[in-house]
């Protein structure tokens, strides 16, 4: 929760500093109204921000099953990244209930949840998902698959 508050605060500071208060929505993407302080590279859009949460009552799996499920989890993330759907993904370094996040470039939260919910770790009951929309720079692009 603290990480989400930090991201929201950082976004507000960035938006104010570049004059994003002049934005309006057009076809799901915010544009700048021609404000001279606003460059084309700072157009904003809504991204589904999916949080990956640890389920307290994990399924009973031996270490081989868990290794296989987590390998499938990483392969699923690679597939989404290589397809251009996932813009950013990561795991939090602490061992809390909020395990990680994914920023997807799809139409809405329902579509993002559909892409993420078919992952092996979600289907196996290891993780649950939540989603909400996050305003960010329209040009976010982290190319290539994550290195393992």
How does this model look, in words?
With 148 residues, the chain is of the alpha+beta class. Helix content is 33%, strand content 28%. Strands 1, 2, 3, 4, 5 and 6 form a 6-stranded antiparallel sheet that branches. Residues 1-39 and 144-148 have low confidence and may be disordered.
List keywords for this structure.
six-stranded antiparallel beta sheet, 148 residues, 33% helix, Alpha-Beta Plaits, alpha+beta, disordered N terminus
Would you kindly provide a brief summary of this structure?
Helices cover 33% and strands 28% of the residues. With 148 residues, the protein is α+β, with helices and mostly antiparallel strands.
């Amino acid at each position: 929760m603290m990480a989400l508050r930090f991201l929201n605060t950082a976004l507000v500071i960035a938006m104010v500093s570049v004059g994003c208060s002049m934005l309006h929505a057009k076809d799901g993407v915010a544009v700048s109204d021609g404000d001279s302080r606003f460059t084309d590279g700072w157009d904003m859009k809504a991204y589904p921000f999916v949080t990956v949460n640890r389920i307290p009552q994990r399924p009973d799996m031996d270490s081989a099953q868990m290794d296989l499920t987590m390998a499938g989890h990483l392969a699923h993330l690679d597939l989404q990244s290589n397809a251009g759907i996932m813009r950013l993904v990561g795991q939090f370094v602490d061992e809390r209930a909020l395990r990680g996040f994914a920023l997807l470039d799809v139409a809405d939260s329902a579509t993002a949840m559909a892409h993420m919910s078919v992952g092996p770790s979600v289907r196996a009951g290891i993780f649950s998902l939540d989603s909400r929309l996050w305003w960010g720079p329209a040009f976010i692009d982290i190319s290539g698959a994550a290195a393992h």
